[in-house]
Design a protein that fits this description.
single chain; 186 residues; mainly alpha; globular
Length: 186
């Protein structure tokens, strides 16, 4: 059992010291994931990678149990997704503006995310619908898009063979690209 897995189990069991010991072990990797997501954002974004990591970390340690390192980082990618989508929703609610002036999302750069908050909302909606169609491919896409992992890394985190991970990513990218092309305001 890795130190990360041991500390995750201890934190879930109520050990108050475990989260403090866990943070140094996962911080650099979480920071890398958050930095990759924030690199795609427009300059002047009110969130930065550090704030994103801290908020994601706080959401992760709410008494949840994780089945190892891969499950923890999948949950981290999901937390980052929710934070960015919540931020986009709040920004959209403030501006209540026209959704027609959005930037296209290049299918070859889908994992880079979207710079326009409305595109994050569209991507979140598409991923939610895709999870009903193919949950395994949707989970892999979440790790690619919000976790910043390669298809191979995402497959390993999910326990999926390398070839299957690449096949699922190809399918997910095509499905999401088609759905995003049909999004309102395009």
């Amino acid at each position: 059992m890795s130190d990360v897995t041991r500390l995750l189990d201890a934190a879930a069991a109520g050990d108050r010291q475990a989260p403090a010991e866990l943070l140094p072990l996962v911080y650099d990797e979480l920071r890398r994931l958050a930095a990759a997501r924030m690199a795609a954002e427009a300059p002047g974004h009110t969130l930065d990678a550090t704030a994103l990591v801290h908020e994601a970390y706080l959401r992760l340690l709410g008494g949840q149990h994780f089945d190892g390192r891969g499950h923890f980082f999948f949950a981290a990618a999901e937390a980052i997704r929710r934070i960015l989508v919540d931020h986009a929703r709040a920004k959209h609610a403030i501006k209540r503006g026209d959704r027609s002036a959005r930037a296209d999302l290049d299918p070859d750069r889908l994992a880079a995310g979207a710079t326009d908050p409305d595109r994050w909302l569209d991507l979140d909606e598409a991923l939610t619908r895709f999870a009903c169609v193919d949950p395994a491919a949707a989970d892999l896409a979440k790790l690619r898009v919000f976790g910043g992992l390669s298809a191979e890394e995402a497959g390993a985190a999910l326990g999926i063979p390398r070839a299957t991970a690449f096949r699922l990513w190809t399918y997910a990218r095509a499905w999401l690209t088609a759905r995003l092309a049909d999004a309102p305001g395009k």
